[in-house]
Specification:
Elements (H helix, E strand, L loop, with lengths): L2 H18 L5 H10 L4 H8 L3 H9 L8 H15 L9 H4 L30 E3 L47 E6 L5 E5 L3 E4 L5 H10 L18 E4 L1 H6 L8 H6 L7 H8 L3 E2 L9 E7 L2 E8 L8 H4 L7 H14 L7 H12 L3 E3 L10 E3 L44 E3 L4 H4 L3 E7 L2 H6 L4 E2 L4 E4 L9 E6 L7 E3 L5 E3 L19 E5 H9 L8 E4 L3 E2 L3 H17 L8 H8 L2 H4 L1 H20 L25 H26 L5 E3 L2 E6 L29 E8 H10 L24
Parallel strand pairs: 2-5, 5-8
Antiparallel strand pairs: 1-4, 2-3, 3-4, 6-7, 7-8, 9-10, 11-21, 12-22, 12-23, 13-20, 14-19, 15-18, 15-19, 16-17, 21-22
């Protein structure tokens, strides 16, 4: 065979292989994996390759080689059958409507034109509303069908294009609707994408029936074995009045969190054989009938005037006109999930939605299946924490004396930083105090973190394993920050008096054995010191449970910030400029950003939810303990890793620049500098940051400018409150100090 023939033969073999094992485009590979709720680690594990290889295949940088190519092609083919490729975006609103559509309504101030409500058990007639930022009512002039945007469709950032997104016909009108009553006393539903539907229901039970039978609201499941999201109805004050509900709760009802059982609407629901969950008819009411097989009958209500949308997290959302509120909640639902309670509740539910506790088994001989544990999930049954992980009052601690205070040797205390120190004479000669804040710090701390999935195992005198999640009783008082490793074989001499200890929230050096989560102990080893645990509670059943959760929230955050003009690939100076006043560019999307960040912190906080009234007494169980997602060990591990990530950057920065932080509060760090910008003290060279140090950018784990005040301001407020260690990081954003620092 000639050289030319040999080359042609090799090429023909490659062509034959490509035909035999065809692969979709790289972007489609990623879409299919994410649609199935799989992580790159899971795919890599099944194909016996590295996660980086899967990432390269999805980015188009490399292609899989035999025999992995055939297995990868088979995986993608199976996923494509379950999650079909997106089709063209058509006029789904019109297609899903009945034979005739009612005319669009006039603005609230105008006289409405006559219209006909849809007949019972027919698809509701859609209207196309104007852009949400305009008047709260749709204009009288109908848009051409081709201009209506499908509910739930992703909109491209300016200058970018996106592929069409497939629509589940069951949920053609999006995940939610804001129910309102117009000046003509007609009830309408404002959906996502500017769609408005007529609502014929005359009562709450009828409204629930209409939602499940005709409204085509809801959201597909986020994971293969998961469940579709229930439709969400948001009731405005006018809708509350129309359906016989109070526009505000009395003080007694507010404290109880619900309407009294004897309320007429609750009686109406009972007569119609609808049920309420244990939390009753409150700001986030869930109305359901027991599931029959795979069919679910459940509707979620959100009542803003009952404080369902906490202003700390949702800003002014509760005061928005219906169409604008539908836009805000719809953006959150499409990028995170349909809200099903507070941002904290939703954050926790997102974990379960991405890792459902059970799945269907492989078919038996007779074709039937049974429910089985879903690998990688927390399962369906709660597990007890280790005694050191249990918060005060937990039933595991019922035998302790009533007023006993547990010390570090009895209680795991992994919390975020709250540390400050007096400024040095040299720092007082500088002009400014500049605060930098880590973006989505706790989300970044969850990324790639190995956490326990099951119950702990008690081990005496264990050998420390940095890859084994758990709680370790170990003495770290010998770790001396004046000399630490900052690289594999590189040691640095530091001024330990100007640094917080990485092992305690208050930055104090430990003075004996204490309980720590795995990331904290691993960092002591990283700094160059040996560790000898006395005992430990470790979890051999473990995994990266939070990876998909992190990725979902990261993508939601980055996509929304990109819509606000802050892209992930901006140069440092351009990034700082883009962040300046980004909220004003689109205040509604800024609300979504706030809610996404609150979902991260709140969801992690729910992992160790404490008793909430209900007549609880110390030593008795409380409601949250019955959840598989009540996992204080996972919360501790995330906080530990987040604090360690921050300390590592601080040490790298100090070793390279000789600069030390003045104050730290959670994910905010304050430095003294001569200029007002982070660029005046962050060591960028040729646009590149210090390796392993702080880097400006919008990605989780990178930093943004939190605020700048003068050194004179800092010294002044500390003198005013006679507090040399007043934590200036708490007030660096706007300089307002309303009271002495109370540590909250």
């Amino acid at each position: 065979m000639s050289d030319e023939e040999e080359l042609f033969s090799a090429v023909d073999a490659l062509l034959e292989q490509a035909v035999r094992d065809p692969l979709p485009e790289p972007a489609e590979r990623k879409r299919l994996r994410e649609a199935a709720g799989l992580t790159q680690d899971q795919v890599a594990g099944a194909l016996q390759t590295r996660r980086e290889a899967v990432g390269n295949w999805e980015a188009g940088r490399t292609e899989p080689r035999p025999p992995k190519r055939a297995a990868y092609a088979r995986l993608l083919e199976g996923l494509a059958a379950r999650f079909p490729a997106p089709g063209a975006v058509g006029n789904t609103s019109t297609a899903s409507a009945g034979p005739t559509a009612t005319p669009a309504r006039e603005a609230a101030a105008q006289t409405s034109a006559p219209h006909t409500a849809p007949a019972p058990h027919t698809a509701p007639a859609p209207h196309t509303a104007p852009a949400p930022a305009a008047a709260p009512r749709p204009a009288a002039t109908s848009r051409p069908a081709s201009t209506s945007r499908r509910p739930g469709a992703k909109t491209a950032a300016p200058g970018k294009t996106t592929a069409a997104v497939a629509v589940d016909p069951r949920f053609a009108h999006g995940p939610l609707a804001v129910i309102d009553v117009g000046a003509d006393r007609k009830v309408v539903a404002y959906c996502t994408g500017g769609l408005v539907l007529d609502v014929p229901a005359k009562s709450i039970p009828a409204l629930v029936d209409w939602t499940l039978q005709e409204a085509k609201l809801g959201q597909p499941k986020l994971s293969g074995p998961g469940k579709d999201a229930d439709p969400l109805l948001v009731l405005t004050e006018s809708a509350l009045e129309r359906y016989g509900l109070p526009t505000t709760l009395t003080e007694e009802e507010r404290l109880a969190g619900r309407l009294p059982e004897g309320h007429k609407v609750i009686k109406q629901l009972a007569r119609a054989e609808w049920k309420l969950t244990k939390r009753g008819f409150g700001p986030w009411a869930r109305i359901y009938r027991p599931a029959k097989g795979s069919e679910r009958a459940c509707v979620q209500l959100c009542i803003p005037s009952w404080h369902a949308l906490d202003s700390r997290h949702w800003g002014t959302a509760a005061q928005l006109p219906p169409a604008e509120l539908a836009r805000v909640l719809g953006a959150y639902a499409s990028r995170v999930m349909t809200p099903c309670g507070s941002t904290a509740v939703t954050g926790l539910e997102l974990m379960t939605a991405l890792h459902p506790p059970t799945r269907a088994s492989a078919p038996h001989a007779d074709g039937t299946r049974h429910s089985e544990h879903n690998p990688g999930s927390l399962g369906k049954d709660p597990v007890d924490p280790a005694p050191c992980e249990a918060p005060d009052g937990h039933p595991l601690l019922a035998d302790l004396p009533r007023f006993h205070i547990r010390g570090p040797g009895e209680k795991l205390l992994e919390e975020a930083y709250d540390w400050a120190r007096p400024m040095t004479d040299a720092e007082c000669t500088l002009r400014h105090l500049v605060g930098i804040d880590v973006n989505m710090a706790f989300a970044a701390g969850a990324n790639g973190l190995i956490v326990g999935l099951g119950a702990p195992t008690h081990v005496k005198a264990p050998v420390f394993d940095p890859k084994l999640p758990g709680s370790w009783l170990v003495d770290l008082s010998h770790v001396d920050l004046s000399r630490v490793k900052v690289g594999k074989d590189t040691w640095a001499d530091l001024d330990a008096g100007l640094l917080p200890s990485p092992f305690t929230p208050k930055g104090e050096r430990p003075d004996g054995p204490a309980w720590y989560a795995t990331p904290t102990v691993a960092y002591a080893v990283e700094l160059g010191y040996d560790v000898a645990p006395i005992e430990a509670y470790v979890r051999y059943d473990n995994g990266r449970y939070l990876d998909a959760w992190y990725q979902r929230l990261r993508d939601a955050y980055l996509a929304t910030m990109a819509d606000l003009g802050v892209d992930a690939d901006l140069a440092p100076a351009d990034f700082l400029a883009a962040m300046d006043g980004y909220q004003e560019r689109d205040p509604q999307l800024a609300i979504v950003v706030s809610a996404i960040k609150a979902t991260v912190k709140g969801g992690l906080g729910k992992l160790r939810e404490r008793p909430r009234g209900e007549g609880w007494r110390p030593g008795e169980p409380w409601r949250a303990l019955a959840r598989p997602t009540w996992r204080p060990d996972i919360r501790a591990a995330v906080i530990s890793r987040t604090r360690i990530n921050l300390h590592r950057k601080i040490v790298k920065h100090a070793a390279f620049t000789g600069q030390y932080p003045v104050a730290i509060l959670s994910d905010c760090v304050v430095y003294a500098a001569n200029g007002e910008s982070p660029l005046d003290f962050l060591p960028y060279r040729d646009g590149k940051p210090l390796p392993g140090g702080f880097k400006l950018g919008i990605n989780p784990g990178l930093v943004k400018h939190e605020g700048t005040q003068t050194v004179l301001w800092g010294e002044g407020v500390r003198e005013q409150f006679d507090a040399p260690d007043l934590n200036l990081a708490r007030y660096i954003k706007d300089g307002t100090v309303t009271d002495a620092d109370n540590g909250e």
